[in-house]
Amino acid sequence: MNKVLVTGVSGFVGSNLSTYFNTQENKIVPLHLRKGVKENSLDDIYMIIHLAGKAHDLKKTSNPEEYYQVNFELTKKLYNAFLTSKAKKFIFVSSVKAAADMAVQVLTEDVVPNPKTDYGKSKLMAEQYIQNQPLPEGKSYYILRPCMIHGPGNKGNLNLLYQVVKKGIPYPLAGFQNKRSFLSVENLCFIIKELISRDDIESGIYQVADDEALSTNKVVSILAASLNRKPHLWNIPTNLIAFFAKIGDVLHLPLTTERLGKLTESYIVSNTKIKAAIQKELPLTAKEGLQKTAASFSKV
């Protein structure tokens, strides 16, 4: 049985990963990174999965320096420990935001990274540090850039949208034809399992997403179907919505042009490289993943 050291094991992805590996030939060993890495603590570790990090603060109340201390400095310390240890593999769960805050076209690993936020910049710094260190023979690293992850225990925007649908509140932005990539946490765990169990996958950066990008209208429809309801989609003219958003800028209302942009932008992420590497289909389609997540919301 392989011992797999995991940081951030109590978080959303970490808790799902622990549950997933209960049925696999791997033993999860948690590490609280802020306590440091003790000498010889990695001697019997086969692989390190680094999930811990400071998440993107959409309310913009965080101290920018915290991103660099947590996402870069702690990653640097852990990776340095890996390089001198007996561990064979290192997975760093980064973010697509390390590449681009907005994806005008389909985002691939070939894009020149240009993050604008401290969150994205700190993740990119950690990625570049890992890439720039000489890699000892017999060791591998994998930098995963997931898009929006969802699944049991998720408390993000998808849960908020589910609550809106559950209350029967119409979705007023149906006139915007945006598409976004999502990632079922089960698909992420499957990919991590492949990286653990195989030795034929090259080190490097891999984007992780479900196969199909979905419009927000489609997501609302899937969530409504999980509640046995018809979706309430209001196709209000987009120019009228934009007008009210400008008023929101002046009067400091909940709907502003910035928030409208985030709600209606397209962000499509290609998973072609990781699928070519593992040569397998993902367990869940985008629709199936959202259905499972919606089912988990109904149990809360």
Automatic annotation (TrEMBL):
Annotated InterPro entries: Epimerase_deHydtase, Lipid_A_modif_metabolic_enz, NAD(P)-bd_dom_sf
Transmembrane domains' residue ranges: none
Domain NAD-dependent epimerase/dehydratase: 4-208
Protein name per Swiss-Prot or TrEMBL: NAD-dependent epimerase/dehydratase family protein
Naturally occurring in which organism (per UniProt): Mucilaginibacter arboris
